[in-house]
Amino acid sequence: MPNIQHMLDELEADIAAGEVQLVRQRELIADLEMRGQNPAFAKSIVKELKAIQAKQVALRDKLRAEVIRRAWLDQDLRAAESRPSSERT
Question: How much is the pTM?
Answer without folding.
Answer: 0.75
